Fold this protein.
Amino acid sequence: MSDNGFGHGCGCGHDHDHEHDHMNVTLTLDDGTELECAVLCIFPVEDKDYIALLPVDNADEEEGEIFLYRFIEHENDEIELLNIEDDEEFEAVSDAFDEFMDNEEFDEMFDDEEEFEDEE
């Protein structure tokens, strides 16, 4: 996993070594239904942190719906997700997420090339 601006690249915001196999969160939607989502990444935009979530039901789809929220981790390790209400803020967060994903795909492309070279 590549570095996303937090300590060791895991996105949890903690300064320690470990791996997260699958980080999931459960969202409670406005109608009261619950939706389990995989955490794609946690990334900074200006001086705030944001989280990108993919519903696990859509995880196998290439063009699944992605949810973006403001991410706050309190000192007691409690996590708070806030809706992004401002259009300009949402645009900036969306652009940063797109850039992050482009970099991830770029990194994966080079990882694949290195694996191919090792096989030769």
Summary: The first helix runs from residue 87 to 119.
